[in-house]
């Protein structure tokens, strides 16, 4: 196995992405600044201008991503005057026009979201993780994110009925069905598209820390060792740090110099073997 490389770049993603080669990246995973947030560090793009601001960047990401690659976008709507703004939905539509395929949508359920009281809504406890691809055929290693089946299997499979031994067609005529006996002898199952994760407890001097378990899960799912992972809004370096630990090459772009320095320092530090994040994510997924 060759030594992995973490390339941390200081500058604007729109400009620096243009320096990367065509079809050179296996996975893009990023959390750009949300509309009207982090004004002191990223300027705070208004919801009305967000799509216009993002599209030149996503155009470059489309160019550098391999046909077999995947783009994961962590983003959240903003409430304005008591109503959710539609800039995320508008962005999805424009990305499709740009050539992206909107393949899947994962939900990050934040287990430890801040409590609060609002006159017309409850607290926000989830965020979008949107999956885009360049082609319908892309690299995906589903077995790497399988989770234990749990105790339900022991009792459910102990005594099987005659129906369990055959394909049980859906009673609503949907065409879907199940065969319970297929689970005999299995100790793992595929997860759902809801990830039950806590937010990072230590902010690492950054205004919005990306939990390590998020890039870890998607790096497992969409890449293999030696592949290239890109985060064009790197922040304090979570994605590149996780990629290094998982033996993936990485590229991170960060416009704010203080965070750029934090990211550089992060990949210089000795990277421990697998941390708590995998254990945490498996435990959370079992609760889905």
Characterization of the model:
- The two termini are 36 Å apart.
- The chain has helices at residues 13-16, 39-42, 47-64, 87-98, 152-156, 213-222, 238-245, 257-268, 277-286; strands at residues 6-10, 25-30, 65-75, 79-80, 83-84, 101-110, 126-133, 147-148, 168-169, 177-178, 188-189, 194-197, 228-231, 249-254.
- The strands form 4 sheets. It has an 8-stranded mixed β-sheet with strand order 1-14-13-2-3-7-6-12.
- The model is unreliable at 274-288 (pLDDT under 50).
- α3 packs parallel to α4.
- It has 9 helices and 14 strands.
- The protein is α/β, with parallel strands linked by helices.
- The longest helix is centred in the N-terminal third of the chain and has 18 residues, at 47-64.
- It folds into 2 domains: 6-149 and 191-286, 3-Layer(aba) Sandwich (Rossmann fold); 151-186, no CATH class.
CATH superfamily of the largest domain: Vaccinia Virus protein VP39
Low-confidence stretches: 274-288
Element-level helix/strand string: EHEHHEEEHEEEHEEEEHEHEHH
- 3D shape: globular
Number of spatially distinct domains: 2
The share of residues in extended strands comes to: 15-25%
CATH topology of the largest domain: Rossmann fold
Please state the structural category: alpha/beta
End-to-end distance, in Å? 36 Å
* Rg (CA only): 21 Å
* Mean pLDDT value: 81
